[in-house]
Structures are given as C-alpha cells and as structure tokens.
Amino acid sequence: MTPTTNTPMEIHIRPAHPTEADQLTRIVVAAKRHWGYSTALLQLWHNDLTITAAQIVRQPASVAVVREVPVAVGMLGAHPDGIELAHLWVRPDLIGRGVGRQLFTHLCQIARTSGFSQVYIEADPHAVGFYERMGAVQIGSVATPHGRSLPLLRYELPPAAPAGV
Q: Each residue of 71-89: pLDDT tens digit?
C-alpha cells in the first residue's frame, strides 16, 4: 500500500541500492512529467533523467521510503566549484508533503560531512521556489546541450555543529 495525501506517513531515508536504478528512474520521469513536459521533451532528456546503477555506486545517492516503498531519490555529484545536487525527485502524489525537504536536508548533511560549505543546484524552473524556500539563492543560469537555460542556485550549508552538541 502506498501513502495518499490524507495518510500520515513516516519517511525514512537510506542509501540507494544499484538494483533500484530502474525504479528510481521511473520516479524521476514521473516527477518531470508532472510539470507538463511533453513526451518528446522527456525523450530528448532521457539520458539526463536516467539513474544508472553505476551512478548509484560512485555518487552519494539516497532514497526516501515510506512503508519500504521508494518515493523519492536524491543524488550528489561533482561541480566545477565543489558539489552539486545532481538529482532530487519526489513522486508526484507526494509533492508538498515534506519528502523533498527531508531528502534535501539529508543530502546537505552528506555534503557538509564530506567537507563542502555549499551546494550548487541546476534547477528545473518549476523547482526554483522549493530551493529558495530551503534557503538557496539564484546566482545565474546554465545553458544546457538541449538549448535550454536552467536557473543556477547556490545553497550555503549551515556550519557543522561542534562535537558533543
């Protein structure tokens, strides 16, 4: 059974498993489709929207689960100036329920403990408001190979808590 918008839910975050790549890609595509992009555009962006087992093995990747069912995926990746949020996708029926917030916070903790002080985000235009509510600031835009320009945001990670606090 999967949660509905009226069901209280307990969200757990855990590392992604390489065997989940196809299932996680389905979440990514469903989330992107939610914003009204055409099938033609989704096909054009196929490689960018696909999460592979190899990516999961080499990049920090996390999954939000509800009742042991993956409902969101997030992944960090290399950025010329440090680290970026390479993926953050929530199953459409759970957008606005706190899943993305929890997963974003979790990934930022990973970035912080890995020694980074900021996270860069090349955001879908529909997600900019979410990232700004989280505290990210738009610092520019990035041209994509597909002729689009995506907003570029930067999120300053809060300082690490002193040991023992």
A: 999 999 998 888 999 999 9
